[in-house]
Amino acid sequence: MGLVADRSFGSISLREVARGAGIVPTAFYRHFASMEDLGVTLVEDSMRVLRRTLREGRRDLAARQALPTAQNSLDILLRHVRDNEAQFRFLVREQHGGIAEIRRAIDTELRLFSKELAIDLSRLPDLVQWSPEDLEIAAELIVTIMLTAVADLLDGEYRGSGVEREIVERTEKQLVMVFLGMGRWSPPER
Amino acid sequence: MGLVADRSFGSISLREVARGAGIVPTAFYRHFASMEDLGVTLVEDSMRVLRRTLREGRRDLAARQALPTAQNSLDILLRHVRDNEAQFRFLVREQHGGIAEIRRAIDTELRLFSKELAIDLSRLPDLVQWSPEDLEIAAELIVTIMLTAVADLLDGEYRGSGVEREIVERTEKQLVMVFLGMGRWSPPER
DNA sequence: ACATTGAGTGAACATCTGTACACAAATCAG
DNA sequence: CTGATTTGTGTACAGATGTTCACTCAATGT
Fold first, then answer.
1. Residue A190: is its pLDDT beyond 50?
2. How far is CA A59 from the centre of its chain?
3. Residue partners of B58: CB distance under 8 A and separation at least 6
4. Do A6 and B98 count as a contact with CB atoms less than 8 A apart?
5. pTM of the model
6. DSSP 8-class letter at B97
């Protein structure tokens, strides 16, 4: 996992992975059919863990009678990112990276997130009469904003300076702008 | 340029580039000090052309007395993307790609775009009293949305199916949501 | 207790890689 | 035309790479 942190997955050799795992090259094939296979597995594992974390986060919020606001969700996400930096570097890097199969895997998972978020949104009083399509469009926008925040956070290696807070505040403002827009979107439609 | 279309830049060898250019490997060094150097040059060239196209687009709009609306700008951008597909595949791929120097170059150029857009926004009647910081935050959000549209357009190889229109419509809706939000943002601040 | 299986080994291969070096051709300035 | 500078060539080398094959070894279930 450390390997995949700062170089593109496509530029990593099977032998490097084997070396990193303390294993002879040929033994690699006992676990994965190819590098592509490894990549897809990595995506699925990372995403599974992330999904679990977010679900737990939402549960905790509910337990404290707190609403799952955008700020709260962003906070949970970013904490998870900090705890699993290498994985997210990998995900952000390979989302549009060089291997089609991996791109597809990430895209599928992100689409799932959007759908989930769209369902959450549909329960908000202000949005009850939105069409499913518009809900998903809004959800995708929110996911995009959050993903951009993650990418910015990881790309700046400033690690601990004020840049981190800056990114969080910017992202929160952007989310508010979108929510305000969503509040205005509905009326002109009906 | 065709080389860099679907594989990550970091996984491309100097020799492949030389081969693609019809040149012996050693001659590569007559033009670039390293692969990294090539990458940065590629970024700068692509961005220079894009900047020129957008400026001309805005000039044309002005000549036709049309406002540079978000829809118009998106249209110009996407047409340019279609005409220079390989370059944009490269840019989207390497924005968070494996080579730090290239990431930095792209990031710098994007930041420039945001600043330019922020200036344009500052001239809109509804936003005249926004703080420069908030203007830039909004501008970055718009750039993010447009960039996401570009990435989605290039990732789907559907090429000509309805997916293209779908992406454009989604993006337009997202932009409208943001603009609506921006219209509501200002009041609570003063 | 023993055969079956999953995981790791080691040698070998043909191929590709970056870069060094001395040399040739082409372009250009005066 | 001539001399200089830029661009390209050919050869060479040490090292890395993916994949094959036949093998050992330890764990497992019955």
1. no
2. 19
3. B68, B73
4. yes
5. 0.94
6. S
